[in-house]
Design brief:
This protein has 116 residues and is mainly beta. The chain is globular, with a radius of gyration of 13 Å. Strands 2, 4, 5, 6, 9, 10 and 11 form a 7-stranded mixed sheet that branches.
């Protein structure tokens, strides 16, 4: 399994970014699979951002998301997306794609910086 994130960058507060996670060797439609996003800010522990259970499409977000982020899957392209709106400086972190089947796989991460 290989997960490749892209789409990170620098934005001003209130801005938007869309992260992509291209997955190979991982099926988005199988039972007991899940794919999600985590983030890790400097000096902080890694925390869950969002997760989709590929079996039933159930979707979870971290409490801090507060409706600002939206995760989606394109099964045909085997790509997961994280649309992030209303970004704030506290969203600055490395964002990682995570997949479970139920073995766990991680991408290399993409950096998001929110600063004026």
């Amino acid at each position: 399994v290989q997960l490749v994130e892209s789409g990170g960058g620098s934005v001003q507060p209130g801005g938007s970014l869309t992260l992509s996670c291209a997955a190979s060797g991982f099926t988005f439609t199988s039972d007991d699979h899940a794919i999600g996003w985590f983030r890790q800010a400097p000096g902080k522990e890694r925390e869950g951002v969002s997760c989709i259970n590929t079996h039933d499409g159930s979707l979870y977000y971290g409490d801090f998301v507060e409706g600002r982020f939206s995760m989606s899957l394109d099964s045909a392209e085997n790509t997961a997306y994280l649309q992030m709106n209303s970004l704030q400086p506290e969203d600055t972190a490395d964002y990682y794609c995570n997949a479970r089947d139920p073995n766990e796989y991680w991408g290399q991460g993409t950096q998001v910086t929110v600063s004026s």
